[in-house]
Amino acid sequence: MDKVLYDRIVNYAKDIEFGKPVPRFAKPWQQDGLETARQIYEYIKFGGEQTAKEIAEAFEVSPEYAKQVILALQNGGAKIQAVAEDSGKQHRHAHKYFVAKS
Q1: Whole-model pTM above 0.85?
Q2: What is the torsional sign of CA 29, 52, 70, 40?
């Protein structure tokens, strides 16, 4: 993900969180990126706790891209929280993301 798209997701995170329409941009990839961010947010909100891998598989993106979208949404103020989950591999923790209740 490039910085321009990341910044756009941060700037519109609250609009995404509250279901407001996101603005149209001249570059289709920016619009697609914001729509993907909205879909990921809604997937987490309505699907319960999800790992980045589960989110990535649902949207056919890489787990790293899913993590970047989640981070951008969090930095923009969307109430997405993470909880560590023991993955059993070398005591590493995967994170499950969920939308905090207001």
Answers
A1: no
A2: positive
